[in-house]
Amino acid sequence: MLLKPHSRVQVFEGAEDNLPDRDALRAALAIRQLAEGLTADDLLLVLISGGGSALLPAPIPPVTLEEKQTLTKLLAARGATIQELNTIRKALSQLKGGGLAQAAYPAQVVSLILSDVVGDPMEVIASGPTVASVHNVQDCLHILNRYGLRAALPRSVKTVLARADSDPRGPHTCGHVLNVIIGSNALALAEARRQAEALGYRAVVLSAAMQGRGPPAIHRADGHQCHGCPPPVPAAAVMA
């Protein structure tokens, strides 16, 4: 981004290859400092999108960025879902799981969210920096047990989880936040359907919940037809 001289806008780049790094950590700490300096007369406007988890790393001490990276990679390699990964990330983060909203209190917070997660759970998208976490330490331990990683946890991670269990960050400070989904698969599909209908098609939204790899949409439409529910012809099969 090319900024004008003396611009008040600051741009931080980081999280190369969608992995948290030192540049992203520096940006996250600067954002936390800005949020903590706000007052009840201020409004914090936040734009959140997929990739936000890697762009906003701020591990709770004594957990280091490297330890958190290693744990995340181990979970991903063993097949953990994005929901499971983000549950662990939130438990170890100063800013995720509503942490950014808490840092900004008592300022009002408006968060505009671009969803990259099926179903648009706001607490999962970018690990929910402005959404109070609905998970607890037992949820984290269950995930770590499932993938055989609990026994191998660094002492720092055990310390943070134990501290959170005895003094959890409550959701009561998120009443000053308005979270709004402004972009998602569902919204994109609805618009695609409207555009197709404007061109004279009878559009059918086959699914807004596809995950992973699957056959092309036309094959999905054929399968739909073979099970006794033929789409109208001419038809536009729309899916995401």
UniProtKB/TrEMBL annotation:
GO terms for cellular component: cytoplasm. Pfam families: DUF4147 (PF13660). It catalyses: (R)-glycerate + ATP = (2R)-3-phosphoglycerate + ADP + H(+). Residues 5-161 form the MOFRL-associated domain. It comes from the Eukaryota. Keywords: ATP-binding, Kinase, Nucleotide-binding, Transferase. InterPro entries: GK_N_sf, MOFRL_assoc_dom, MOFRL_protein. This is Glycerate kinase. It comes from Rhinolophus ferrumequinum (Greater horseshoe bat). The lineage of its organism: Eukaryota, Metazoa, Chordata, Craniata, Vertebrata.
